[in-house]
């Protein structure tokens, strides 16, 4: 069964509406939803942010249901200069920032090929390499260093760990990430402003904004980019579903 896995409710909101998702299971930040694309059943999972939540949610899912293929969907930061806010990136490989010696995992070649064919040569859809990090990379200098050190195009917080588990269980895997920010944009203090379940971390944000109230406008701009990325993500995944639910899907 096709499974779509995202960290945050914001990353699934539009898809849940269009696929008429119904919650089937909840434990901590993890939520599992039953949905349908036409006659095809689809599982949707909200895991919570970061490695621990992603791995725990996938373990819970696999204990309940045999799945495949698996898509890691959601937001990401752009590292490559060619990638802009609102672009959607089909992740071809996955590396880990925390351990430079860890293996690199590749996306399933058939899934990646199906996705590339579905979008053709659209300029807003890119193929790139994903770096999974422990926390958002907040500043332009740090992003440039990460891009060079790991030869990465985008950064997220979950895909590497999901790719590793998918490889262990022989599940075809692909990452689809919508870009909310790029290498030249500064995120601080909003990189510390989200709880693992997606709620706003007011205890961290309010003191920072009281010290620097002019940064409120930066937060408004970030919210606008998140809205734009959410729309691009939902539209892209919806366009992928016919291919992924078809006979050519692994």
Keywords, please?
250 residues, alpha/beta, Rossmann fold, 7 helices, globular
Report on this structure.
The chain is 38% helix and 26% strand. Helix 1 (9-18) crosses helix 7 (216-244), helix 2 (50-64) packs parallel to helix 5 and helix 3 (109-119) crosses helix 7. Strands 5-9-8-6-10 form a 5-stranded mixed β-barrel, surrounded by 4 helices. The termini are close together. The chain is globular. The protein has one domain: Nucleoside phosphorylase domain (Rossmann fold), CATH 3.40.50. Strand 6 (88-96) and strand 7 (105-106) form a beta hairpin. By secondary structure, it is α/β, with parallel strands linked by helices. The protein is built from 7 helices and 10 strands.
Protein topology:
Blueprint: E1 2-6, H1 9-18, E2 22-27, E3 30-37, E4 40-46, H2 50-64, E5 70-78, E6 88-96, E7 105-106, H3 109-119, E8 125-132, H4 140-150, E9 154-156, H5 159-168, E10 173-181, H6 202-211, H7 216-244
Parallel strand pairs: 1-4, 1-5, 5-10, 6-8, 8-9
Antiparallel strand pairs: 2-3, 3-4, 5-9, 6-7, 6-10
Helix pairs in contact: 1-7, 2-5, 3-7
